[in-house]
Prior knowledge:
- By secondary structure, this protein is mainly beta.
- The chain has 2 domains: 1-116, no CATH class; 137-313, Single-stranded right-handed beta-helix, Pectin lyase-like (Pectate Lyase C-like, 3 Solenoid).
- Helices cover 2% and strands 56% of the residues.
- It has one helix at 45-49; strands at residues 5-7, 22-27, 33-34, 39-41, 65-70, 73-83, 90-93, 96-106, 117-120, 123-133, 139-141, 146-155, 161-166, 172-186, 190-197, 201-217, 219-227, 242-255, 259-264, 271-283, 291-295, 297-306.
- The strands form 2 sheets. Strands 1, 3, 4, 6, 8, 10, 12, 14, 16, 18, 20 and 22 form a 12-stranded parallel sheet that branches. A 10-stranded parallel sheet has the order 2-5-7-9-11-13-15-17-19-21, with no helix packed on it.
- The longest helix has 5 residues, at 45-49.
Amino acid sequence: MIEGTLVAPPKRSYWIEDTIRHWILFRSVRGLTVTDGGTIDGNGKIWWQNSCKVNTKLPCRQAPTALTFYSCTNLKVNNLEVLNSQQIHISMERCSNVRMSRLSIRAPGTSPNTDDIHITHSKDVKVMDCAIKTGDDCMSIEDGTENLHVKNIVCGPGHGISIGSLGDRNSQAQVANITIDGVRLHDTTNGARIKIWQGGRGYAKNIVFKNMIMDNVRDPIIIDQNYCDSATPCTKQKAAVEVSNVLFKNIRGTRASREAIKLSCSKAVPCHGIALHNVRLTLKRGGGDAKSTCQNAKRRKLGTVMPQPCSLND
């Protein structure tokens, strides 16, 4: 049980290099329940001010994750508030049979790298009934995630729901059986997103984004197999993490830019089995034509899809 408020030390000098990745860490615990309405406050302002994402002249350094679960099984996390993390708010690593619900996660929209819920190398995870607003991904779903179900999430501001990034530094990635259902996004940079670096290997497959409402989202639907978050251009490579069997269903709302659907896939490893079913996205302030771009994506549409997703093929 967490009662009251836990506040992290305000100065970076209080942290040593060996433990800087974690503030609160639960490791190798079976049958753990974390609950009871407490607050975890990462007190992250000084970390954000010294981030290379904010000041490019500064070196990029690690910052703590507020709450980490590592190699835990039969885990429940509910009725908890996590604020102002130094970097990631909640990280789920190598865990199984996890239930997370009724979480409130908040930081300023300008806070860098403050992902809300980060999941990697974990399976059989459910995340339900959460309110999320920070400066980065509302959820980042990374390598090794399998059998994830997300239901009833409110997200914004931030970067939306992201699968990835995958395949960085030519790495192997495996993500499968992901369902994102009943998400409301407002004022986010992305909505339903899959982001993949060039040069990786593996797969991201059997993914469903459905019953989503978007309000002023810049890129509502995006698959990017050419992702590059680097100061120097990424070299074009032939390998890529394969993207297949992805469904975007019952997605509606408004976008902040003219490009509502972007399917940018690898020429060497095209996306396939991409389906759009009942999608309706319009400009927030009206006027102008909708736009979609598609590269190397084998796709089909069912029902009404607005804007039309380029030319269609199976």
